[in-house]
């Protein structure tokens, strides 16, 4: 099995069986994300404990990329500090947009590697918004909520 097939399988698996797909009744933060280009919608729920992410979950519907990205994001961000989350998003965004990725802090290298399956979207500019939607919603949640549109 080559890497492309493996990545495809990971995206399909997370898209069909999303992890942490649940609403939180009393999250400390939440926000909606909407990608009108593709029709993807996500709501991201975050519960912080100081500057650490105690719980992060999502609900939504949309294409496999958007759901898989949200699922992977919640798995990776759980337990991280806000600074670590920011570093991961910066690195991920650079990878999917084909930009210059900032150096990944060593403790986060494994997490960044887990996001690799999604970086194939950089060849498809329209899909970049699918892949980053949940991350934008996560950021918006921390800033105080509301709805973020990927435009
Ligand atoms: Zn999409």
Overall geometry: globular
Low confidence ranges = none
Rg calc: 14 Å
N-to-C span: 36 Å
Which key phrases capture this entry?
20% strand; alpha+beta; four-stranded mixed β-sheet; 46% helix; binds zinc ion; Sufe protein. Chain: A; 151 residues
Give an overview in words.
With 151 residues, the chain is an alpha+beta fold. It has a single domain, classed as Sufe protein. Chain: A, CATH 3.90.1010. It has 5 helices and 4 strands. It has a 4-stranded mixed β-sheet with strand order 3-2-1-4, with helices on one face. The longest helix has 19 residues. 40% of the residues are buried. The site of zinc ion has 8 residues, from helix 2.
In brief, what are we looking at here?
This protein is α+β, with helices and mostly antiparallel strands. The chain contains 5 helices and 4 strands.
Which helices and strands occur, and which strands form pairs?
Blueprint: H1 3-16, E1 29-35, E2 40-49, E3 52-61, H2 64-77, H3 82-97, H4 109-114, H5 125-143, E4 147-149
Helix pairs in contact: 1-2, 2-5, 3-5
């Amino acid at each position: 099995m080559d890497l492309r097939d493996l990545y495809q399988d990971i995206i399909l698996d997370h898209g069909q069986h999303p992890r942490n797909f649940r609403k939180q009744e009393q999250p400390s933060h939440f926000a909606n994300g909407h990608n009108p280009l593709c029709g993807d919608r996500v709501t991201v729920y975050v519960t912080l404990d100081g500057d650490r992410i105690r719980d992060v979950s999502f609900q939504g519907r949309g294409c496999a990329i958007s759901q898989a990205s949200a699922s992977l994001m919640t798995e990776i961000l759980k337990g991280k500090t806000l600074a670590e989350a920011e570093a991961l998003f910066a690195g991920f965004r650079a990878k999917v947009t084909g930009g210059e990725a900032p150096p990944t802090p060593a403790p986060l290298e494994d997490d960044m590697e887990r996001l690799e399956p999604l970086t194939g979207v950089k060849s498809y500019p329209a899909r970049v918004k699918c892949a980053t939607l949940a991350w934008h919603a996560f950021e918006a949640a921390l800033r105080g909520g509301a709805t973020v549109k990927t435009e």
